[in-house]
Structures
1.
Amino acid sequence: MSKRIDAETLSTHVRSALRSDILSGKWAPGEKLQLTDLSGHYQTSSTVVREALTRLVGDRLVLLKANRGFFVPVLSLAELKDITELRCVNEEFGIRLAVERGDLAWESELMAAHHTLERTPYRTEGDDAQLTDDWVRAHQAFHEKLLQACAVPTLIDLTCTLSDLTQLYNRWAGRATRFVNRDVAQEHREILAAALNRDAKEASKLLRSHYETTLKAIEKAGFSEDSPTSSSPAASGSAR
């Protein structure tokens, strides 16, 4: 029994590490994920790596091609537009439920998540086009906490999946925020205020604007319909 638990723990750990590395842009879009190389990198067996990659296929963070192996997805602007719209619709509904159902504990936890986000360094030292890993995690935690009180697990799971897919683009469109006049920190403050004021309509509007502004930034950064992220001029950085 303990051996099985240890194997499950190892598989979960490798999957988490792979997920983090893919979202951080460690490999370029379209790049093949070699089992032998990954086994050496994560110091585990190819069986464990294969299992982790297979689970990430289900999350759409890895693409499995028949008889060819595992690859990092190649993404298009058209797909990003669809994902953004689906995310907006999903979270507009989720935030309305959260505002209606959230209690004092949710408010306190939401303020704490925002405080962490505000106090976490935004850009990597020496590279103002690269977001810090800590900020990316804090940002995702804040948005997850916003919807947590909706108490609909399926909606929350979908939200997390869409967030990951969006992050793929954001990580590979590094200088995008330079192309639009935005204050990301202020956007988060306004979203928080609307949620705490129990103004579902305003919170929904602000969330949509938050995500659509990122989409516009990526478009302005040179991401075109016929140019996947692997050939984008901003493919080496990140934006959010």
2.
Amino acid sequence: MNAPQAHAAGAERRLVELGITLPPPPSPFGKYVEAVRVGNMVYFSGMLPAVGHDLPLLGRVGEALSVAEGRKAAEMAALSALAAAREFLGSLDRVTAVAKLGIYIATVGDFREHPAIADGASELMASVFGDELLAPRVVLGMASLPLGVPVELEVLLEVAH
């Protein structure tokens, strides 16, 4: 096992150490699947700040929501992604890299604090998988997102065969 794989093997243990309880895995809000594996890559549908099928935070950051609430929404979306990954893979210990993290944020037009919100998702992933498995990320501001959520994540994971 190489160093990143050895580090990733502790993801489930780190969840316990951090006191993180994953929410119920998300369920689709339309006609799609949550994840598909192609080779050693797992592509996930857009991850919303959902708890199961409930959406507790709605609105645009800088309007209905503060930066702190937007950051919390990004963390919630990352927790949903981890729950979906665990359900799909059986264990987060199978993850060998977070290959990509796209963070889409519904904001008002002149908003500039996107990185502070995106860090809510990035920091959670780094806590669980370690900095050496952390992905490059794209952070974009949007006029609106599905169902009125403030954040949607795009997640691509590399997994062990």
